[in-house]
What we know:
The structure is a single chain. The protein has 73 residues and is an alpha+beta fold. It has one domain. Helices cover 37% and strands 12% of the residues. It has a 3-stranded antiparallel sheet. The longest helix is centred in the last third of the chain and has 10 residues, at 60-69. The radius of gyration is 13 Å and the shape is globular.
Amino acid sequence: xxxxxxxxWPEWMTLPEAAAYQRAAGISTLxxxxxxxxxxxxxxxxxxxxGAKGVLIIRRVDLDAWVExxxxx
Length: 73
């Protein structure tokens, strides 16, 4: 990887990978969003599923859409 080249992020990410990728929320916020049911509350719901060995994984496009849905600071 050359200077200034961004890493290639996988299509599916674990919570630590997702937190590092988007930098808008930490692991605990992502976990709360995954378990959220009310879109009017913060954080809004985030789609995820269980991967190998029950590890929560998030699809990159779902994470991108979730970050875009967050209110401006």
